[in-house]
Amino acid sequence: MSAMSRRVRSYAWLVRVLTRGGVIGPTRPDRIVRMGRAMKRQGGASPMSGIGLAAARKPDATALVDEAGSLTWGDLDRRGDALAVGIASLTGRPVRTIAVLCRNHRGIIEALTAGTRLGAETVLLNTGFAGPQLADVIGQESVDLLIVDDEFGELVEVAVAANPSLRCLRAWTEPDTVAMSPARRSADVGTIDEFIVAHRGDHPAPVTRAGRIVLLTSGTTGTPKGARRGGSTDVASLAAVLDRIPWRGGQSTVIAAPVFHAWGFGQVAIAAAVTSTMIMQRRFDPVGTLDLVRRYGATGLAVVPVMLERIMDLPPAELDARPMPTLRFVTASGSRMRTDALIAFMDRFGDIVYNSYNATEAGLISTAVPVDLRAAPETAGRPLTGTRVRLLDDDGREVPAGGTGRIVVASNSGFDGYTSADTTKEYADGYMISGDVGRCDTAGRLFVVGRDDEMIVSGGENVFPLEVEQVLDAHPAILESAVVGVDDERFGQRLVAYAVTRPDAVITAEELQAHIKSELAGYKVPREIHFLPQLPRNATGKVLKKSLPETVSTHAAGNPEQEP
């Protein structure tokens, strides 16, 4: 096929997918002009361009529903403008960096929109931060203004003490907020709503470059790194998602995944691009989430895997009372998903789960569609259109079919670099090194085996925790598990497992060790198994292995001297 033929086919595919998703279609000439003006005054494309474009296309359509009510795309656009003007009036110099510490509600969308229109960098902060970590990130990113929900007041006290020049703008306000200290009161500049009312109808000055979003790496060790995302993600990347996941314009999607996380933020950008109404609640609640889907007739639900698991942990009577006939897709990403919960969800609600494998730095990588998940529930699916994935050995050579290797990725959806000039991402022949290890099956489906830096070397043998965790999780008595390596004088490292049992289940460490030995090689059997009431997780549901207890009461452990 000639280069011209490939370009024609690619263009035809792009138009077909974007039309089906509702991104493009018949539009009045005056609205096309408004769309052009919206792009021009905010300095070009950005991850939040969709808000202004949606307002130009469908100003009166419902954009967002949260606990405070509903807003149209026109409302969101005007409120973003007014907030931007209010922020710009705080100081005589441009605001360079805004940080946002908010749960899922209109305030986080308005803050992101305003930051984009000011040409600022907007840092999305993890709602699970402790005070010292918040203070470190604010200092590291040179934040001028923190937009924050009242519930995080105690954390803000720590951040202000460490960063005296910081100013704070309150987003979601609470009537019973604890009184502010003098330092916090001095930093406080008011509320988002006050700024919007004071500057209603005003427009920020045009900028030459649209603002960028800064997403933080998971930061399981040390202070998280800031990863910039600007306007580099092209429309083909959006089409690649829409070609795999059935988003449609004019429909409603419940966005339960936290917006501060790369996955949740990405769902906001997609919803704006296709003009899908975003349904949000500040805190995830499994029953409340199902009720939102039913109340608004939502066709989409965006979650992180632990949310789907919590839904399926509900009593059967709760699930029986909440069928969801309107739901056409559930899209998940961010961490490993329990396969029993995945299959149970599809058995009950239909084959509508789409599980994606992405990374803050690498962007879009692969998505498993329902037919993939039925065939191989642990798969990450196939690479999206426009994304190239290779598996490399330690010498940089591609591994043979079925082999395990480091996952490297090339696509147009990668990040724009870290905020720290001292930090860079490794590449191999133009492919970004993801830090993950994986394999592919004969059908071309990708499986993520684990993190490269989590590999355990015990007695000279390599073990990835994930394969042991999957065997543990498959036992009917086990709800979830985590496996780590600890130093061992004899073997270099030994495997230690932490397991959470299902309600009323009775199992011993020795029985679990025998179960694992029946499925895996002897050197992959944990030498200790500890039982915990729950695994420590961050705000996005990812297990924090660094927070697992170093010692557990002996009655909960297997014999560390045992040779399985």
UniProtKB/TrEMBL annotation:
Domain AMP-dependent synthetase/ligase, residue spans: 54-418
Keywords, alphabetical: Ligase
Keyword Cell cycle: no
Gene3D superfamilies xref list: 3.30.300.30, N-terminal domain of ligase-like
Family: Belongs to the ATP-dependent AMP-binding enzyme family.
GO biological processes: fatty acid metabolic process
GO molecular function: medium-chain fatty acid-CoA ligase activity
A Pfam family that the UniProt record links to this protein: AMP-binding
Ranges for domain AMP-binding enzyme C-terminal: 467-542
Superkingdom field: Bacteria
Protein name from the UniProt record: Putative acid--CoA ligase
